[in-house]
Amino acid sequence: MKEKIRQKTPELLRYFKRDIVEYERKLNDLMKILSKEYKGEYSLIHADFFPGNLLINTSSQVRGLIDFGLMTMYGDPLFDIAIGWVCFDMYDEFHSNIRKRYLNLILSTLGESVRKELYFYVLVYSFITANFYSGDCSDGHYQWCVENINNKNYWNAL
Known about the structure:
protein kinase activity; globular; two-stranded antiparallel sheet; Protein kinase domain-containing protein; mainly alpha
């Protein structure tokens, strides 16, 4: 993840410096955390869990996962949980407060102790994917990433 952020930094620098409050401090903080040795469980990370990538049968059971791609890697399975959480209704199209409800479900299942990692992985994902869909950072995904990176609650939890 650290290497992916390092690769993205040159192409995102001018946009992030313009749009992210205390960009350099945040980047340094994230890189410092990523420099620490990870001692948790490892698994294949899909990193793009959202409803469109789930294959569901007529009984509404998940039967498959598609679109292994640019973000697929080996690491902490909480990364997939974090991305599934924030991507489920990424742009709040349903106006149903589903992200808050989904977060509460995750925390009630896994415990409050995972909140810090969930927020951390959302920040990492936002740094890496900000220009996935628009090279000039002029789309809604970029704005969504900037909102995440500027979210004080995420940084305060770290």
